[in-house]
């Protein structure tokens, strides 16, 4: 009985150590991101945030307005998920490099389309010139459980080569829809 109590405590200690490790990594990421900003940019952001907070405290947006806006956004998101079949389960973003002209961010995204799950990792490079901002996706890595379908593997390889996420999402949506229909048809005959 004493061993069980010790095991429970050891498990709790291990869980807390893992949580501390994750929080430390998160803190270091935030510190790294903030290192890319100049003091001037930080001060401007703080002033902007203070102005927003003062505006909210003066009653520009009431809690009921914010709640209505949130409900509207949730309804829009629900509609888009039903329309496209995509449900994103996680997203993380880490700034790798930031200068005045160029920003590089690493993104990780996972989700489902119908019953097919996927994970994406890519870098988004934004270059700002005098007139416009251009964005380029690099280092695209797509992880999908393609099962026995080698066509999906070939498609994923081509998309990774060209770095075209729009093509990936459009094609995955169509493929997942037909995949579900085939699956239901085969279940019907079993």
From TrEMBL:
Transmembrane segments: none annotated. The gene is Cenpp. This is CENPP protein. InterPro entries: CENP-P. Residues 6-40 form a coiled coil. It comes from Mionectes macconnelli. One of its GO terms (biological process) is CENP-A containing chromatin assembly. It holds the Pfam family CENP-P. Keywords: Coiled coil. One of its GO terms (cellular component) is nucleus. The keyword Coiled coil applies.
């Amino acid at each position: 009985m004493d061993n069980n109590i010790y095991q429970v405590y050891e498990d709790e200690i291990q869980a807390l150590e893992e949580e501390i490790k994750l929080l430390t990594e998160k803190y270091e990421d935030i510190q790294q991101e903030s290192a890319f900003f100049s003091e001037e940019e930080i001060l401007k952001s703080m002033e902007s945030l203070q102005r927003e907070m003062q505006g909210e405290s003066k009653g520009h947006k009431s809690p009921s307005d914010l709640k209505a806006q949130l409900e509207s956004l949730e309804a829009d998101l629900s509609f888009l998920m039903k329309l496209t079949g995509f449900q994103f389960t996680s997203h993380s973003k880490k700034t790798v490099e930031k200068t005045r002209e160029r920003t590089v961010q690493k993104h990780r995204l996972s989700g489902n389309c119908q019953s097919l799950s996927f994970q994406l990792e890519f870098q988004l490079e934004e270059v700002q010139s005098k007139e416009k901002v251009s964005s380029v996706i690099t280092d695209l890595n797509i992880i999908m459980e393609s099962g026995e379908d080698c066509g999906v593997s070939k498609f994923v390889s081509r998309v990774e080569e060209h770095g075209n996420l729009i093509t990936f999402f459009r094609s995955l949506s169509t493929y997942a829809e037909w995949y579900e229909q085939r699956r239901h048809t085969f279940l019907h005959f079993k």
